[in-house]
From TrEMBL:
It holds the Pfam family TK. Homotetramer. ATP binds at G24, S25, M26, F27, S28, G29, K30, T31, D96, E97, V98, Q99. Belongs to the thymidine kinase family. This is Thymidine kinase. HAMAP family: Thymidine_kinase. It is found in: Cytoplasm. GO terms for biological process: DNA biosynthetic process; thymidine metabolic process. Substrate binds at V173, M174, L175, G176, Y181. PANTHER family: THYMIDINE KINASE, THYMIDINE KINASE, CYTOSOLIC.
Length: 197
């Protein structure tokens, strides 16, 4: 779908470390793009580790799975700090659903990239109210490369950058799929979210 900015060189051949962020709304293809980059790193014989927050058990306890059921084996972790302990001597680290980690993930990602590793992060840049979803904006600021992907608006068929929640729940974290959220363009999102300023 996209051409990654750089395949990144392995530590053994003098990798400098880099941070890549894949962001966008729900259903925009973040997980598919993450899996695609990680599979290509594996083809390049780089050692790859994949993590996700343990809270996200929608499709599988351990695999990272896209809405289209593409999947890759991953390690669920409770805390961002666990990634430092579990990443060992790998060259490339992929992390999905990054919006569910607290701000410790920023320090963890900085440390790992300074060890020469390529870090690829995927997550929501905005919440159900269309507001920045930390820690994603902070990670986008420190990344070398940011890729914003788009879904298709379920109302009008245009490009969608917003995740519209179909229920009245105001909880920031509410796991769900198509039964709970819909991708929408700006116009179709704010037409039904008049409460958000
Ligand atoms: N509204 C939509 N716009 C685009 N793709 C959609 C939509 N609804 C479902 N999909 C499916 O979702 C897939 C992307 O899934 P995924 O990579 O898991 O997205 P994300 O991680 O961004 O939520 C698409 O390839 C497509 O099959
Ligand atoms: C907008 C929004 C979403 N969530 C939840 C819903 C899903 O479980 C994930 C996003 O998954 P995807 O791979 O990007 O489709 O996040 C949430 O908890 N709060 C929100 O505001
Ligand atoms: Zn629309």
């Amino acid at each position: 779908m996209f051409i990654e900015p750089s395949i990144g060189r392995s530590k053994s051949s003098g990798g400098k470390g880099q941070i890549e962020v894949i962001c966008g709304s729900m259903f925009s293809g973040k997980t598919e793009e993450l899996i695609r980059r990680l599979n290509r790193a594996k083809i390049a014989r780089q050692k790859v580790e994949i993590f996700k927050p343990a809270v996200d058990k929608r499709y599988s306890d351990s695999d990272v799975v896209s809405h289209d059921e593409t999947m890759i084996r991953s390690t669920p972790v409770d805390f961002a700090g666990d990634i430092l302990l579990l990443s060992g001597d790998c060259d490339v680290i992929g992390i999905d659903e990054v919006q569910f980690f607290d701000e410790e993930i920023i320090t963890v990602v900085q440390k790992l990239s300074r060890q020469g590793k390529r870090i690829i992060l995927a997550g929501l840049d905005m919440d159900f109210e269309g507001r920045p979803f930390e820690p994603m904006p902070s990670l986008m600021a420190i990344a070398e490369f940011v890729t914003k992907v788009h879904a298709i608006c379920m109302k009008c068929g245009d490009l969608a950058a917003f995740s519209f929640r179909l229920s009245d729940s105001k909880m920031k974290v509410m796991l769900g799929e198509k039964e709970a959220y819909e991708a929408r363009c700006r116009k179709c999102f704010f037409e039904e979210r008049r409460d958000v300023t």
